[in-house]
Amino acid sequence: MLFEGGGALIEKIYFSSRTEKAKNSDLHLHHCGSEDCAPNHDWGPAIRDCYLIHYVLSGKGMFRCGSFTRELGTGDGFLIIPDHISYYRAHEKQPWSYCWGGFHGVKAPSFIKQAGLSLENPVFSYTRDNRLKECIQDLVQSNPLAKGGDLKLTSLLYLFMYLLVDNALTPLPETGSEHIKETYVRKAVEYMRMNYPRNISISGVAQYVGLDRSYFYTLFKKFTEMSPQEFLVMLRMEKACELLAHTGLSVGHVSRSVGYNDPLLFSKMFRRIKGKSPVNYRSALISSPESLAR
Questions:
Q1: 3-state class of 5 per DSSP?
Q2: Hey, CA dihedral for 265, 267, 268, 270, is it positive or negative?
Q3: DSSP code per residue over 74-107
Q4: CA 68 – CA 20 distance, rounded (Å)
Q5: How many of the other CB atoms lie within 10 Å of CB of 193?
Q6: Which CATH code, of 2.40.30, 1.10.10, 2.40.50, 1.10.600, is assigned to 173-225?
Q7: Fold of 230-293
Q8: Tens-digit pLDDT profile for residues 52-90
Q9: pTM above 0.90, yes or no
Q10: Which CATH superfamily groups domain 2-168?
């Protein structure tokens, strides 16, 4: 354990954010730690070379970035964006204890945006459970040199970002912005694209994005002009067409590959959507390759 300014500090640094590996990774951990700050303990004004998120475990403090200044307490957090001047200071009488994670990566800006964080809004509140705190603690305690250590660190970092993104989506969409509503639909589409081969239901998709099924149906149709079920069927049929055109899989294998355990039901749905059976569709492609463009 190290000590800085009278407060207990635990920090782990993993690798430089300027290495080629770091630059080309989707997301990677640069450093993480926790600290029980001394009264008036501060940092800056200065810049960081990676994204850095602090999460307040107890006490109070102040965070400033540009013209943005905010007093923060237990359950609050703040984001420092690379190469932007920031300053933060512990309260004089109730100094905060916090934990943090620093990271970089190609997808980091996208994840930060999905979490609702930016230069204009660099703070958040996470009070619904202890998962964010426990995630960072697991990061701090993990050994990157152990078997599978790097994989564990990466998985925990993704979990950390997921919790922040999921937390940002908790406002009720009925009172949320169009951007929030569209985010729900986008997440549903991503979920269906990733899971169409499985036996998923629309109720399950609605549950995944955290919406009532009937409201999810209304929202999805508003943004896509089709029902969730219609979209899922369309997605499965398009994937089936690709398999029929570019592989030698049997109709039964294609059926199971796109989420239909019953080949007869698959063939019925395929004929309804494409106007011909899977067998005839493949035969038409063989005899008339230009039909692939349709």
A1: coil
A2: positive
A3: TTEEEEE-TTS-EEEEE-SSSB-EEEEEEEE-TT
A4: 33
A5: 12
A6: 1.10.10
A7: Arc Repressor Mutant, subunit A (1.10.10)
A8: 999 999 999 999 998 899 999 999 999 999 999 999 999
A9: no
A10: Regulatory protein AraC (2.60.120.280)
